[in-house]
Amino acid sequence: MKAYQNKDTNHCQLGKETLLKILDHSHDAIFATDGNGVTIYANRACEKYYGIKPSDVIGKDSWQFMENVGCYPPTAPITLRSTRQNTLEQTTRTGAKMLVTNTPIYDAGGNIELLVQNCRDVRELEDTKRDLEQTKELLARMQDEVVVLRKKELQNVKLVANSSQMKDLMQLVERVAPVDINILILGETGTGKSALAKNIHRISSRKDGPFISINCAAIPEELIESELFGYMGGAFTGALQKGKKGLLELADGGTLFLDEIAELPLRLQGKILEFIQERRFIPVGGHQVRTADCRIISATNRNITEMIENGTFREDLYYRLNVIEMELRPLRERREDTLALIYYFLNQFNKKYKKEHRISPECRDILLDYVWPGNIRELENMMERLVVVVEDSVIHVGHLPKVFSEAFSKKIKLIEENEVRLSQLDRAVAQLERNMVVEAFRKYGSSRKVAHALKISQSRAHRLIEKYCNNGDAIADSQERSD
């Protein structure tokens, strides 16, 4: 018989062949006896645990069978006498230690009609339990390692503050970091917004909590909502069956850093605003409200004011995020920080790659004068490249990429042009000064009167007369021009 659908009960009726296939593929050994203790069924698993074939036991008294194959205790007779379900340990002749559960089935008169025995290897259970405990220990250890690594990463955050702008900014950070308040960080790409956010978290009251970061520009628009708010099982195609926690929930008790917040889709800005105001949210595909307590630090390199005017960013969200505003100036405006960062990254990568590089003064000056469009990130990458690629102990100008030599050539050309213009100006000023002094001395004849006429000190007038009027040529020349 095959399985068929019962239209009246809407249940699947299983045929004998199907039931036997199911039982024979059970991992546990299964026996069944009648009310007198005679074995009427045994599945294939009994061969593995008891060293017998089903045909060897079917039709035989369970007590006699168990004694013959050396199993102790014979559990079926015990259950038949007690007339209630029980679980006993049993040792087989193969050395297996079995956990046998005997379940009696009663007829209408309350007598045992059948007895079903489910036999499982205790060693397998113990191995499974041990594996589970080891997995739990490994998971706990990994969680501890993640916490340690996260703290180590935050402790290794380095913010160079040699310039007056950065010193002022760090003073502001020290004042507001301990206060649980939202912060908006502004600055060009690569200026260190992420490092600043980590530093704020590190010295905040939430320093022992998680620091969760998300780049709103790096996640596709159709996925960012589920990443932020999480989702319920089966919420969409490809979703995990058990669902997934969102970053808001993972940041509970800590800090959530929303990098490139200006790239957040307009339709999600309202949900973020609601969370900031209420600290509540609903996962994708869910109906139950969840809560999370986290500090919000956001950052952008965009002009949000213009985006508000264009209708691409919510004004009310901007004011919620921008309780405290911090601006990181580009590296080209922080020459003092550039110098410190050059040597910071040089030392860092020397240590990392076991090098002992130094940098020549000429090379250092070129790096200082470069505009660094990629800011700190570009400088860091450049220093790592130089440390790895350069074989000489000293990094010279010739080791720099072509873009630096081109920038240096432009600077030299500009300096030369300025020097030409300055020399022309200097000559014109000197000639004008000479003419005025000579004319005044010809007219007044004394240093005192020359000083009074030119509104300068007498000592200066005396030096200029000595310089320009120490012979009659200058006076004569001046007189000829006046004639």
UniProtKB/TrEMBL annotation:
Q: Does the keyword Transcription apply?
A: yes
Record-linked CDD domains = AAA (cd00009), PAS (cd00130)
- The UniProt entry's coiled-coil ranges are 115-152
User: Sigma-54 factor interaction domain: which residues?
Assistant: 159-388
- Recite the UniProt keywords alphabetically: Aromatic hydrocarbons catabolism, ATP-binding, Coiled coil, DNA-binding, Nucleotide-binding, Transcription, Transcription regulation
Q: Which domain of life is it from?
A: Bacteria
Starting at the broadest rank, the lineage of the source organism is:
Bacteria, Bacillati, Bacillota, Negativicutes, Selenomonadales
The gene for this chain is vnfA_2
Name of the protein in question: HTH-type transcriptional regulatory protein TyrR
Domain PAS intervals: 15-60
Pfam families for the chain: AAA_lid_14 (PF25601), HTH_50 (PF18024), PAS (PF00989), Sigma54_activat (PF00158)
* Keyword match Magnesium: no
Q: Which InterPro entries match?
A: AAA+_ATPase (IPR003593), AAA_lid_NorR (IPR058031), HTH_TyrR (IPR030828), P-loop_NTPase (IPR027417), PAS (IPR000014), PAS-like_dom_sf (IPR035965), PAS_fold (IPR013767), Sigma_54_int (IPR002078)
Q: Which organism is it from?
A: Sporomusa sphaeroides DSM 2875
- SMART domains of this UniProt entry? AAA (SM00382), PAS (SM00091)
